[in-house]
């Protein structure tokens, strides 16, 4: 591995008030960032500043607060576009989160699909990238195809040619599994889609928080992610889409802000993107928080973070490897993965394990992680999951491994 | 808090209950899932003359869920079916409203620490809800 510029995890951690001063003064070893990441002071400050200095509705007001709010909202859009590496800011649609973004595409792009058309999903998907397509299949009478996963918990890309055909209209796949941590090699997916004229939607909920993207280079058509996993507030998410696609898609939700003209006799026409897909008052302060979060994240040393997180991930995998009854669901190596490690321990239910380690301040996630088809694929009802962010340190891993050892004594 | 939650009696009850399987020929049965965690409980009953003669279970769940299913399988036989109809609601009130343990079910007190852990109350309630459904 190439040596990256040194990254100082302690200095990073120091920017997160909830980690430096945990609630109740109790120890906190936060290993649940794949569910929700914590907020750095820069984001808290930006949101507070907005709410105390520029709180107003956007776009339609002419007073100075409204002007400031609109400017802040559009500045956040610019920050998102910059993080995604896209020059056209209008291709960035603010939504409520990844789920809302994918539902937008399923409804709007999906309007053009019907019997005989196919959408390809995978066994690896979060329910948010499965259920909207199942609903669409029922609504529009089109067919869902499912790409299987390998025993290592990766998309089985060798099966792509047999599943993509001239009937395929869209491939909707994850950029990184929220269960196995496996990163998807997007290149072959885009190539397979292009060979039949299909589009590609990537669920970036897990990948987006781990460093800036270059969507033009990735070559996809839609990209969705959530703010709350990317060091930003809840209630904000992003759908990026190519202008030529978004401009032809019908609105998803109707309301204020998304229209060109409303007329009871002649009917209603719709605004250009991004407004066409942002009906109603948007989550303004949340968008401002997301803009601040992505600017904060873009300035980090991501090559160094990748090495730091890989080393911590290796420590978790080694620790689990030393527990005879532990089974890792996902890659057991460090290549092509993020710091998301799901595991089972024979005879210990994930929720009992997660509850037990919580007494030591270790925050894990237990359950099916909204990926029941994947749990079925691996023959488990659920797993326990540790997930990393740049603010995690060796102390978090020490606490996790000690707590696991203690849990083994209690439940076995 | 976790120490309290996983006290010895409850752990023993859950572990002992694993040996009790399903009934071979139940005349009433119900399976319920907890969609949040994927846990699944089946409660089987053999009834006659308005009484439960035997009970069995299959539980794919956490220790709290296993302990609750084990308690049902141990205590339901001999009870009148009518007396069990309101049991699930009584256990819910015990957990969520600090209500008393249901009459004749003093062992429900073992779950008292779960009152403080809202996210785990459904783990205890799932087998009792399956019992209620089996009795419908």
Would you spell out the secondary-structure blueprint of this structure?
The complex is a heterodimer of chains A (412) and B (136).
Chain A: H1 9-13, H2 17-20, E1 29-30, H3 41-53, H4 64-84, E2 92-95, H5 98-108, E3 118-122, H6 131-140, E4 143-147, H7 160-163, E5 168-174, H8 186-196, E6 199-203, H9 215-218, E7 222-226, E8 237-241, H10 243-246, E9 259-263, E10 267-270, H11 284-298, H12 302-321, E11 326-329, E12 340-345, H13 350-358, E13 362-363, E14 365-367, H14 372-377, E15 383-387, H15 394-411
Parallel strand pairs in A: 1-13, 3-4, 3-5, 5-6, 6-7
Antiparallel strand pairs in A: 2-8, 7-8, 9-10, 11-12, 12-15, 14-15
Chain B: H1 2-5, H2 8-17, E1 28-34, E2 39-48, E3 51-60, H3 63-75, H4 81-85, H5 87-96, H6 121-135
Antiparallel strand pairs in B: 1-2, 2-3
Count of DSSP helices of chain B? 6
Q: Helical amount among residues of chain B, as a percent range? A: 40-55%
Number of domains of chain B: 1
Q: Quick check: average pLDDT of chain B?
A: 94
Low-confidence stretches of chain A: none
Largest sheet of chain B: 3 strands, antiparallel
H/I helix tally of chain A: 15
Q: How much of the polypeptide of chain A forms β-strand, as a percent range?
A: 15-25%
Task: Estimate what percentage of residues of chain B fall within beta strands.
Answer: 15-25%
**CATH architectural group of the largest domain in chain A:** 3-Layer(aba) Sandwich
- CATH fold annotation of the largest domain in chain A: Aspartate Aminotransferase, domain 2
Write the H/E string of chain B, N to C.
HHEEEHHHH
The largest inter-chain interface, given as chain pair and residues per side, is: A-B, 17 and 20 residues
User: Oligomerization state of this entry?
Assistant: heterodimer
Rg of chain B over CA atoms, rounded to whole Å, is: 14 Å
């Amino acid at each position: 591995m190439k040596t990256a510029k040194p990254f100082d995890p302690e200095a990073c951690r120091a920017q997160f008030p909830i980690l430096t001063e945990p609630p109740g003064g109790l120890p906190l070893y936060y290993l649940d960032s794949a569910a929700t990441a914590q907020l750095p002071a820069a984001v808290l400050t930006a949101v507070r500043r907005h709410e105390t200095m520029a709180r107003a509705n956007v776009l339609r007001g002419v007073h100075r607060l409204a002007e400031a709010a609109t400017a802040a909202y559009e500045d956040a859009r610019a920050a998102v576009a910059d993080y995604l590496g896209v020059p056209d800011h209008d291709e960035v649609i603010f939504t409520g989160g990844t789920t809302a973004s994918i539902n937008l595409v399923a409804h709007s792009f999906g309007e053009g699909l019907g019997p005989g058309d196919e959408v390809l999903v995978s066994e690896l998907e979060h329910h948010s990238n499965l259920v909207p397509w199942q609903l669409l299949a029922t609504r529009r009478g089109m067919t869902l195809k499912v790409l299987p996963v390998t025993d290592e918990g990766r998309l089985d890309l060798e099966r792509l040619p047999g599943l993509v055909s001239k009937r395929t209209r869209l491939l909707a796949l994850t950029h990184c599994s929220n269960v196995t941590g496996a990163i998807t090699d997007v290149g072959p997916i885009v190539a397979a889609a292009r060979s039949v004229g299909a589009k590609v939607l990537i669920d970036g909920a897990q990948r987006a928080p781990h460093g800036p993207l270059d969507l033009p280079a990735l070559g996809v058509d839609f990209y969705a992610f959530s703010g709350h996993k990317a060091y930003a507030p809840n209630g904000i998410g992003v759908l990026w889409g190519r202008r030529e696609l978004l401009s032809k898609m019908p609105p998803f939700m109707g309301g204020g802000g998304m229209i060109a003209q409303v007329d009871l006799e002649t009917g209603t026409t719709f605004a250009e993107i991004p407004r066409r897909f942002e009906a109603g008052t948007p989550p303004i302060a949340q968008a401002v928080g997301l803009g601040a979060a992505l600017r904060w994240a873009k300035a980090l040393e991501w090559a160094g973070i990748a090495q730091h997180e890989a080393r911590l991930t290796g420590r978790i995998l080694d620790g689990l490897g030393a527990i005879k009854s532990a089974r890792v669901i996902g890659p057991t190596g460090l290549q092509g993965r993020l710091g998301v490690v799901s595991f089972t321990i024979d005879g210990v239910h994930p929720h009992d394990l997660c509850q037990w380690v919580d007494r030591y301040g270790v925050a894990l996630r237990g359950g099916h992680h909204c990926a029941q088809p994947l749990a079925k694929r691996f023959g488990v009802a659920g797993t326990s999951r540790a997930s990393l962010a740049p603010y995690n340190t060796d102390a978090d891993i020490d606490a996790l491994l000690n707590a696991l050892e203690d849990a083994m004594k209690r439940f076995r | 808090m976790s120490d309290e939650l996983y006290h010895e009696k409850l752990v023993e009850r859950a572990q002992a209950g694993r040996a009790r399987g399903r009934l071979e020929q139940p005349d009433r049965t119900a399976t319920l899932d907890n969609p949040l965690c994927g846990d699944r409980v089946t409660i089987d009953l053999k009834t006659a003359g308005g009484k439960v003669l035997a009970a069995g279970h299959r539980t794919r769940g956490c220790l709290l869920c296993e302990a609750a299913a084990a308690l049902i399988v141990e205590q339901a036989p001999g009870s009148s079916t009518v007396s069990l109809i309101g049991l699930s609601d009584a256990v819910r009130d015990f957990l969520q409203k600090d209500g008393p343990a249901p009459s004749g079910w003093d062992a429900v007190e073992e779950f008292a620490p779960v009152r403080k852990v809202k996210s785990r109350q459904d783990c205890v309630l799932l087998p009792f809800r399956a019992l209620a459904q089996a009795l419908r």
